[in-house]
Structures are given as structure tokens and as C-alpha cells.
Amino acid sequence: MEQEPNNNGSSLNLSCHNTIVEIDRLSFLYEQKLVIDNLSFQVLERDFVGLIGANGAGKSTLLRLLVGLLKPTEGEIRLFGQSLTAFKQWERIGYVPQKNSFNPLFPATVREVVESGLYGRSKLYKRLTRGDQRKIDDAMDVMRIADLASRRIGQLSGGQQQRAFLARALVNNPELLILDEPTVGIDAETQRGFFQLIRHMHEHHHITFLMVSHDMDMMEAYLGKEPAQSCGKLKFYVKHTHAPEDCGETNLTHSLDPERPEFAEVT
Ligand SMILES: Nc1ncnc2c1ncn2[C@@H]1O[C@H](COP(=O)(O)OP(=O)(O)OP(=O)(O)O)[C@@H](O)[C@H]1O
């Protein structure tokens, strides 16, 4: 499939920022069904990429390919400069999949769900250090779920569960957050607060975002009306945080510490 020309240079790294995700001539078939067709795309450090497309366009499939849950039929994916097949630094990436509905009898508490984000893919449960406890507290504070810490995850509302899964994705202080429709099931007011928060995390911290959303209003307001690139029914809206001429800037922080003064602005 022919790709539309890129009008903002996102497939050409003209910036001093590193390429965090590199998708090179990627195709994917589910059995005989072609879902991703010859996609090439790059996400640079500190980009905010909004991925839009009709139901069934392949958005979730693309995210699942990026986090190694599916294998490309053709083409290559590189994360932080490393081929996905060799990539092991999963703590650098926070991923929140689309559906996280829990059986109400599932025994884990909110705190345990957030804590499980620390183990990455090792599945090795380790003794938590004080630093680990602090990371868990910070992630729960940021998502405003500290008061739910000892509740069973399966007994929370959909929106509360979603916030717990976001806290789980944040617990390692990731450089890249991959979110698949993170505000589904969240009420309008909490949604606005959430967008404010991720916008703040994007603008004031080093976090790079790749987010699927059907919320065109939010996407257009933050990322502009024109997609940077299209491939089939997938449309990529991109906001670069800094212009290449600002590359000398070094005063950004990469911390989710909610006690930092800038977090006070996010209500
Ligand atoms: N496990 C699967 N086996 C076979 N086909 C699948 C599987 N998962 C998804 N598909 C198909 O692949 C296509 C892309 O699905 P995907 O979930 O990536 O779409 P999407 O863009 O995320 O859609 P939505 O906006 O509805 O979440 C759809 O036609 C879907 O039916």
C-alpha cells in the first residue's frame, strides 16, 4: 500500500532527539487478513504521537507488535535503537492495553497491581526496597488512587481500574508510554484531568507518548488537524516537543515525583 507523503519530517530524523521507535516496512497478517501494510514510521524522543483510525483499522495490533506481543509478518521494529528481537529493557516502556476488565474475584489489591509493574517481564517477585515502595506511592499519588490502595482491583469501577493500570505503567518512570484508548470508561471530568496530566508529563518531563484514541477533539486540540502520516486507515498525528533549534536545552526533568512543584498545577 502506498503511504502518503510525510509533511512534517517525522520519518526523517532532523532533530537532535533520539529515535525511540523505528518501524521499518512493517506488515502483519492475522491468518490471511492483511492488517498492517508496509508501514514505516518513527517516533522521536519527546514526541507525542496520536494514532487514530476506524474500528478494525489495526491500531491495537500495531501497539501489540511494538511491545512484542505479536511478531511482524514482514519488516522490522527497533526500540531505543535496538531490534525488537533482542530488546530487553522493558522497564523503559509503560504499556496500557485496551481492555483490562477484571474478574471481581481476582484477589490482587490496587497496590499489588501497581507493584507488579516493577517486575517487568521477569515474573520474579523480589523483596521491595524502600525506593520501590516510594515509586509505588508516587505512581498511585499521580493517578490519585492512593485512597484505593488496599481495595480489590476487581471491585473497582472501570475508570478506577483504568487509573490503577496507568499507575502500573508509570511505576518504573518510563521514557515511553504506549496507551491504547486510556480513557475508555472514564467519566468526562476525569478524562479532562487525565489529558491535562499526560500533556503536562509530555511538556515538562522526558516522556514520549504513543496513544490510540477516538477522541478527535483532544487529538486535534493538542496535535493539530492534519495527520503527519497515513498508512491505510491508520493516521498518525504528531507533536514534537522541541524544535531542532532548542536542542541545547537541558533543564527538563524526568521524574514523576508528585511533590515536585509543577505537579501542583495538575488538578
Ligand atoms: N486475534 C485475532 N485474530 C484474528 N483477527 C484479529 C485478531 N485481533 C484482531 N483481529 C482483526 O484485525 C483487525 C484489526 O484489529 P485491531 O484490534 O488492531 O483494530 P483497532 O484499530 O484497534 O480497532 P478498535 O478501534 O475497534 O479497537 C480487525 O479486523 C480485527 O477483526
Automatic annotation (TrEMBL):
Biased composition (Basic and acidic residues): 256-267
Family annotation (Pfam families): ABC_tran
Gene Ontology molecular function: any one: ATP binding
Keywords (A to Z) from UniProt: ATP-binding, Nucleotide-binding, Transport
SUPFAM superfamilies assigned: P-loop containing nucleoside triphosphate hydrolases
InterPro entries: AAA+_ATPase, ABC_transporter-like_ATP-bd, ABC_transporter-like_CS, Metal_Ion_Import_ABC, P-loop_NTPase
Location of the region described as Disordered in the Swiss-Prot/TrEMBL record: 247-267
Domain ABC transporter: 21-256
Family: Belongs to the ABC transporter superfamily.
Name this protein carries in UniProt: Metal ABC transporter ATP-binding protein
